[in-house]
Amino acid sequence: MAQTNLNAPTSTIKGHGDQNPGNIPVYSGSKDPLRPLCKVSKKFATSKGIPIETKPIITVNANGFVGAVFLRDEECIIHDDVMIIDAISGDLHKEYMVYALRSAIAEGNYEYEAKLYNRVKEIEFEIPVDKYDNPDYGVQEQISSVYKKFEVLKQGIAELGDWANDARIKE
Length: 171
Known about the structure:
171 residues, alpha+beta, Adenine-n6-DNA-methyltransferase TaqI, Chain A, domain 2, 4-stranded antiparallel beta sheet, 33% helix, globular
């Protein structure tokens, strides 16, 4: 199904970004998927042997905002508080895996684990299959599309709630 890359990279801390600024984001266990811990230069990362991810990857926070799952579709560095999940089969849609992992983590209450490293090997999720019992990429893509629309609606509702909380009546 899915396997983890348990070879965590050399820990990159915020100070490295201050001392070696660049364009490569370093993602840690943050709740905000768009907020990197820092950004470092490619020269610094390669000189320290820190792996730079270049293909789309799925990450699971094992510390910080535990259990958060994100699709990283950019060149980046993954902090050792985060695990990289990779599909064993090429017939799995990455966005589908993100939503399926989120559901499985919530269902198993893994988001309350102090460290998720040892538990992630146990996480299982359903994969739509065709009549020949092969993973059905098209159905996975359709399910991902529905989830994506749901996420957009949730974001809109959250923004509306923020607006309502900030609203004041003038006399």
